[in-house]
Amino acid sequence: MAEDEAGLTVAQMAEATGVTAHTLRFYERAELIRPVARNSGNQRRYSSADVEWVRFLLRLRETGMPISQMREYAALREQGPVTTEARLRLLQAHQAGLREQITLLRSHEKALAEKIRLYRNDLTRPADTSTRRHVDTSTERNH
């Protein structure tokens, strides 16, 4: 491959990372990724480091980090090692929020599992609406 053609095209990068070309361009405009190298035809060429960075950004996005915080993290990253402590604090705060969400989700899942258990029990017993407090009726809406 000629030096001018080295790297991944937008389409190849999209395939490698699982995001659309539109998202890649948005990330560049939003300053989440640094301006990408271009070939003589002015086409973007992404490096393997770009692939890993976009994959990390996707993890941040998929775990609910707002774009503004992603942008802050990206800006800190661009400043190099002097911002390591600030990046660490930002990621620790995000991780703490994730842990709270996970705890809440586990609680919700437990409540749903209990409701499912009650419904399964109802299906194996004769109908007796007086003991079915979790079943919706026309006169009463129980959970």
From TrEMBL:
Record flagged with keyword DNA-binding:
yes
SMART domains associated with the record: HTH_MERR (SM00422)
Arranged from A to Z, the UniProt key words for this protein are: DNA-binding
Q: Which SUPFAM superfamilies does the record cross-reference, listed alphabetically?
A: Putative DNA-binding domain (SSF46955)
Q: Which Pfam family, any one, appears in the UniProt record?
A: MerR_1
Spell out the molecular function terms from Gene Ontology.
Answer: DNA binding; DNA-binding transcription factor activity
**Domain spans labelled HTH merR-type:** 7-76
Q: Which PANTHER family match?
A: HTH-TYPE TRANSCRIPTIONAL REGULATOR ADHR (PTHR30204:SF98), REDOX-CYCLING DRUG-SENSING TRANSCRIPTIONAL ACTIVATOR SOXR (PTHR30204)
The name on file for this protein is: DNA-binding transcriptional MerR regulator
The record lists the lineage as: Bacteria, Bacillati, Actinomycetota, Actinomycetes, Propionibacteriales
